[in-house]
Write a structure and sequence with these properties.
The complex is a heterodimer of chains A (448) and B (324). Chain A has 448 residues and is α/β, with parallel strands linked by helices. Chain A is built from 19 helices and eight strands. The longest helix of chain B has 19 residues. Classes of the chains: A alpha/beta (448), B alpha/beta (324).
Chain lengths: 448, 324
């Protein structure tokens, strides 16, 4: 999501490469570029200025390290400063049980969807009985939306479709949740402007009634300079305990994250990275800083894989690959595992050096077609692809709505894969590893 | 409905207060100096005008200050508003046969002008999640109805849970005609049926509410293309308007949104929502600069009448806190 910022920072610092030492003069031009890049990425004006000042004071007068280009050194300083700014370490939730969470924010920031996502995620992390209370009595059908999502994720639900007394609804919802032995109680509230006095008073009363353990501001990751005003006003009114950034699967540069964190000091706790209820994760400032600088987010990818992929199945698959005993059934299973990780674009975003790349047009579609082709084969054919003669291929193409040429192409690709596995099984593995090493050597920031 | 203009000013009045507070009365009787120029720069950036427009406004004011060191704040504000007006020249969207008093109809070459009167003018509202498409559909329907037009709403957001119910409930509240199916239904089929219904009842406008989608998801962008194809089976010139609904509190990413939606769907204009907060929606200037997409309406509040025709001169004056 920070791709554009990364691009701008690297071009701003390109001029610094190959310069003998850091002087105020050669820094000034580059830092001006950094400031412009930050402003262009919607970082708040004051935050950007302070950030640049701090980086400058750290850079100028510093010994230029031997063997490291000054540009790289500056990237490192910016990286460290970003990690510091975004808040080191990850922000944990209150240990209270039941955990009462109040969700607040502007209109359309994604509170209702996020409420369901949070319930789903926390269930995986040890809360057994999540419960949602619908407190948005203003937006038409908001209650229905939460009810549908809660049902979908098997989350307890309370609503009052008659009353407009929001604090009373919340209190009744709390009682209902406690009666249901809920250990996680999520209160979804109406979107409100931070300057709407009446509605802010209303949510303050609600908060006083239920005494939440967490008050989370749900904010659109693409927010502009306004992010600071919003976060500040909500923080003053409700003493926020955390922030959830949504819609980070878009290409918003996300400067809002930087601004809100540095102005309010409220930790960013979760990020929404897609429309599916599973596309939601804990926020890790160090990873985000790495992503900002185009260093990828491998840790997130690995953790996501651990949560979604069956360990035994993965080991069985690896064993099969080693023995080069890998048939189309395994290929299909593997593809389905990968799909659980999220969209190809979101996976790509986490790969080092690939964050700026777009998944080629139609790649997701291609994967679906491949799936359809394999699913149109009999179990026997999947296990023994050599059975596939012309007639069978025609049947498969018809069954999957594809062309014989596509079936042929898939089979050819599969044969190549098998050959590669056989090569690895034989002595070829070492040679391949060497090739991979050579490729890795071209990474972006070898100095870090 | 022609009293709407007053509302426009009072909606942006908060904006005026905010930017005036930022500049510590810079635009009052005070004389410009180096410090106030810096304050001005900050105020412009925090209005989301972006690097280019901010630089342009600053350059003109600085130049004037260089020539006349006695330059007053008020004059600087006039200069700023003039730059903004110049940048925004031609950016006012005009809905032919729509929500404007007859005298203000403007160019008859507007996209709506070529529609045969027998077919409804189709307006498709598209945008990212949470930008306010459903609410805008309802408000726009109400506005056109107040203007004596026949309107049908098409509930084509069949993806988000309860989005159909949301639009239905607006339709009931505002007494608007709606064609809807259920969540999970084929949105293009809903659009098709709604067009047929609007045609049969001789409605002037069909407003198509679509599901929110991030512009980075190409499969969802394909769904939009399908809605267009299906509408064109009824009327090859539809949709006559494809407006991107932009959240006014977003920053520079709204330019990227507009760029991608425009490339894949061919936008004809913008509606900017949620400008009743303290955000000044400066990003729309960036969108106009780059894509030349006219701005049709601004959302200035939660009431149906809070959807207002965009007026560049008013916007520029409001931003710089100038009275008429």
């Amino acid at each position: 999501m920070f791709e554009s910022l990364t691009d701008k920072l690297s071009s701003a610092l390109r001029n610094l490469r190959g310069v003998g030492q850091l002087t105020e003069a050669n820094m000034a031009a580059a830092l001006q570029e950094v400031r412009t890049a930050l402003l262009g990425a919607d970082v708040h004006f004051k935050v950007a200025r302070e950030f640049v000042e701090r980086v400058q004071s750290q850079c100028v007068g510093q010994e230029v390290l031997k063997g490291v280009a000054p540009g790289q050194q500056v990237v490192k300083i910016i990286h460290d400063e970003l990690v510091r700014l975004l808040g080191e370490g990850s922000a944990a939730l209150s240990p209270a049980r039941p955990l009462k969470v109040l969700m607040v924010g502007l209109h359309g920031s994604g509170k209702t969807t996020t409420t369901a996502k949070l319930g789903k995620l926390l269930r995986k992390r040890g809360y057994n009985t999540p419960f949602a209370v619908a407190c948005d009595v203003y937006r038409p059908a908001a209650i229905d939306q939460l009810e549908i999502l809660a049902k979908q994720e098997d989350i307890g639900f309370y609503a009052d479709r008659v009353s407009k007394d929001v604090p009373a609804i919340a209190a009744a919802g709390l009682a209902a949740a406690l009666a249901a032995n809920a250990d996680l109680i999520l209160f979804d509230t109406a979107g409100r402007l931070q300057i709407d006095h009446d509605l802010i008073e209303e949510v303050k009363k609600l908060s006083a009634r239920i005494q939440p353990d967490e008050v989370l501001l749900v904010a659109d990751g693409a927010l502009g300079q306004e992010a600071v005003n919003v976060a500040k006003a909500f923080h003053d009114a409700l003493a926020l305990t955390g922030l959830i950034l949504t819609k980070l699967d878009g290409d918003a540069r996300g400067g809002a994250a930087l601004s809100i964190k540095s102005i309010t000091g409220v930790p960013i706790k979760f990020v929404g990275t897609g429309e599916k209820t599973g596309e939601f994760d804990t926020f890790y400032p160090d990873r985000l800083a790495s992503r900002i600088l185009g260093m990828g987010d491998v840790v997130s990818l690995v953790e996501k894989a651990q949560e979604n992929i069956d360990q035994k199945e993965a080991e069985r698959m690896a064993e099969k690959m080693r023995k080069a005993d890998f048939n189309l059934e395994d290929f299909l299973a593997q593809m389905q595992q990968v799909k659980k990780l999220g969209s190809m674009q979101s996976i790509m975003g986490m790969m080092p050096g690939m964050s700026g790349m777009q998944v080629p047009e139609g790649a997701e579609k291609q994967m679906a077609r491949t799936e359809a082709i394999i699913q149109s084969m009999t179990i026997q054919e999947r296990r023994k692809p050599e059975l596939l003669n012309g007639n069978r291929r025609k049947r498969i193409a018809d069954g999957s709505g594809t062309k014989i040429a596509e079936v042929n192409a898939l089979m050819k690709q599969f044969q190549q894969m098998q050959q590669m596995m056989k090569m690895m099984k034989g002595g070829g593995a070492k040679k391949m590893m060497r090739q991979l090493e050579a490729m890795k050597g071209k990474g972006r920031f070898p100095g870090m | 409905m022609f009293g709407l203009f007053k509302k426009f000013k009072s909606g942006l009045a908060k904006t005026v207060a905010a930017i005036a507070a930022k500049t510590h009365g810079l635009f009052g009787g005070r004389k410009i100096d180096a410090a106030s120029l810096e304050e001005l720069e900050e105020a412009l950036y925090t209005a989301d005008f972006g690097v280019e427009t901010t630089a342009e406004i600053l350059k003109e004011i600085k130049e004037a200050y260089r020539q006349d060191p006695g330059l007053q704040g008020k004059q600087a504000a006039e200069l700023g508003a003039a730059v903004l007006r110049r940048v925004l020249a031609g950016s006012e969207g005009v809905l032919a046969g729509g929500a404007r008093p007859p005298g203000a109809l403007g160019s008859e070459n507007a996209p709506g002008g070529r529609v045969p009167p027998s077919n409804p003018t189709v307006i498709a509202l598209i945008g990212v999640n949470g930008s306010g498409k459903t609410t805008t559909s309802a408000k726009l329907g109400w506005l056109l109805k107040q203007d004596g037009r026949g309107v049908t709403l098409a509930a084509c957001d069949t993806f988000r849970a309860a989005a159909v119910e949301q639009l239905k409930s607006w339709a009931t509240r505002l007494d608007l005609e709606i064609v809807a199916s259920h969540t999970g239904a084929d949105s293009a089929a809903v659009a098709f049926d709604a067009w047929q219904a609007a045609k049969a009842r001789h409605r002037d406008f069909l407003i198509v509410d679509t599901a929110g989608r991030l512009h980075t998801k190409s499969n969802l962008m394909d769904e939009l293309a399908k809605i267009r194809r299906v509408l064109q089976k009824n009327d090859p010139t539809a949709p006559h308007h494809a407006w991107l609904v932009v959240d006014g509190s977003l920053g520079s990413n709204s330019i990227e949104q507009a760029r991608v939606f425009h490339k894949s769907f061919g936008l004809t204009g913008l509606v900017v929502t949620k400008l009743d907060g303290t955000s000044r929606g400066g990003a729309i200037v960036g969108i106009w600069r780059e894509l030349r997409l006219p701005i049709y309406f601004l959302g200035l509040g939660e009431q149906p009448e809070d959807l207002q025709p965009f007026n560049a001169a008013n916007y520029a004056r409001a931003v710089f806190g100038l009275d008429d």
